[in-house]
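A.,

Following up on our hallway conversation. Structure tokens first:
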């Protein structure tokens, strides 16, 4: 496995020429100019190399490479085969779907995003539960209106335990799903985590919205843990004026 680390170069673009070439050639020169190949040290750094065959689950929600599009500062850079590694939080990339082809990973850059299976994945800044500033990949769920809704899907690695005695079974290492939802006001750049407590959730909105949102949630029995309910809720919130 190899990681592709993107180096951004300013290149003149004569009209829509590069985009036309991209559509014809898929993995075009514009896209290739964004990266160079480096040795991947991810597994060695995390201690997963020797355990790989014993780990339960997968670092991917979907292990298939799917044809997708890559954009830099909203400029179309080309198409390639992409998949999201939810453990290392990286977008992996290949020119083809051939198994023997080595793959790389897009640079984690806020100006660079991709569309995979009609879903937009973007590298955004957020605060974790301890208030520490971090960055990670978010999938856009609602992108029109005053409030945008995102989902952050990651895989956590839980170490295994050897059997203390011959009468007890060992616990295998495994990947665990972690899914959280966030929203952003008018693409302000500040993400708010969707908390499960309804009173705390409505407190994140202005006083003109609080009562109407609370009433809508009560009437429609909104569950803040369910993605379908959150979609319904934010479509409603975006109708408020």
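Then the amino acids I'd put at each of the 241 positions:
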């Amino acid at each position: 496995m190899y990681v592709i680390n993107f180096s951004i170069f300013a290149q003149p673009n004569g009209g829509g020429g590069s985009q036309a070439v991209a559509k014809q050639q898929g993995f075009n020169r514009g896209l290739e100019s964004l990266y160079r190949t480096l040795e991947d040290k991810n597994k060695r750094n995390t201690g997963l190399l020797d355990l790989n065959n014993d780990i339960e689950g997968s670092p991917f929600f979907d292990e298939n490479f799917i044809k997708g599009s890559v954009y830099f500062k909203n400029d179309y850079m080309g198409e390639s085969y992409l998949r999201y590694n939810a453990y290392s939080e990286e977008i992996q990339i290949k020119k083809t779907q051939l198994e023997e082809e080595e793959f790389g990973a897009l640079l984690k850059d806020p100006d660079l995003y991709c569309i995979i299976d009609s879903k937009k994945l973007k590298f955004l800044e957020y605060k974790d539960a301890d208030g520490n500033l971090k960055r990670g990949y978010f999938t856009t769920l609602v992108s029109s209106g005053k409030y945008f809704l995102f989902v952050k899907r990651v895989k956590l690695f839980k170490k295994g335990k050897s059997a203390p005695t011959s009468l007890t079974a060992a616990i295998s290492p495994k990947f665990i799903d972690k899914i959280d939802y966030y929203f952003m006001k008018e693409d302000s750049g500040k993400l708010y985590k969707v908390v499960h407590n309804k009173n705390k959730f409505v407190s994140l909105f202005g006083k003109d919205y609080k009562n109407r949102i609370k009433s809508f949630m009560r009437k429609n029995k909104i569950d803040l843990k369910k993605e379908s309910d959150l979609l319904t809720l934010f479509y409603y919130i975006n109708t408020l004026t």
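Residues 195-241 form one domain. Curious whether your intuition agrees with the design.

B.
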